Structure formats: structure tokens, C-alpha cells
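Hey,
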Amino acid sequence: MWLLILGLILFLGVHSVGLVADDWRKQRVLHWGLRSWKLLFALVSLVGLVLIIWGYAQARLAPQWLWISPAWTRHLASLLTIPAFILLVATYVPATHIKARVGHPMLLVVKCWALAHLLANGSVADVILFASFLVWAVFSFIVLRRRDRAAGRSYPAKSGMRDAIAIVVGLGLWVLFAFGLHQMLIGVAPLGR
């Protein structure tokens, strides 16, 4: 469990520097250079991610259950991940109305993903992992939306076709993941097949 917690501290910690200590981050970038900062950021993120995966895998071997989720929560979780996949694609399709509306779709992806998995999983490791990401995403979204408003920043949209692309590709990725990749990569069939 300690590997999972250490991984979360590293991964979410490095992803929070710009939120809680942006001036310090800017000073480091000026002092070390952008390339060095990005390299350090990537290395700490990667180490954190590896520890999260390793720690979570270890915790799954001998789970400590807080509750056993009913079967219907898997289906609810699957439904909650549909907008997550659409938002994920909208993050990378430029100038969508989705991004113009929400500003930071990737953080909404993390919120949907974490909430869905909290509903469907009840071990201590699940709660630590998914609640950590959910709290981080909520905090990050609030901070970044406030900064956007203070700076008068907006995200312009160009055409509805870009949103249609995000929706169609997002739904396609969801189907691919829900009916195959989740089982293959995670070892769990989300729809209970």
C-alpha cells in the first residue's frame, strides 16, 4: 500500500506544482531551462505512475474490503466513462465547443473516471487511488477555472464538426475499451462478461 501512496504523492504532487506554487515553478523554469524542467517533470511523473501501478497491483493481491459494490455499479461506472472518453478526445481536437464550454476537459475526464471507479470498487486501495485522483481533479479544475476568469481567458470554438469528431471518436474508443481493452489491460471486464 505504501508504494501506491508514494506513487500518488509523486504523481499528483508534480502535477500540482503549477497550481499551488506557480511562481516557484516559473523560477525553476527560468533557472534550469524549460527542457530540464520538462525532463524532471516527466521523470517524476513516470516514477510516480510506475509506483501507483505497482502498488495498486500489490494491493489487489490481498484486498482489504470496505464494501462490496453491487453488480449494477459496474454498469453505472461504464455509463459514467462514456463522457470521459468524449471529453478525452475533445481535449486533443482543437477548437471544439466542448472545450470552449468546460475549459479543461482533461480534468473532467479524471473526475468522471475516478468517480465511476469509486462507485464500482470498494477496497481500501481503490478508495485511496480513485479518491486521490478525484480530489486532485476537483481542486485543479477550480483553480484553473478561477485563473481563466481572472485572466479573461477563453477557448474559442470553430465548428460543430469538431465536436462531432470528438463525440464519434470518443464513443468508438469507449466501445473498444469497454468491450476489450479494459479486460486485456486491467484484467477486469467492466460489463461483467
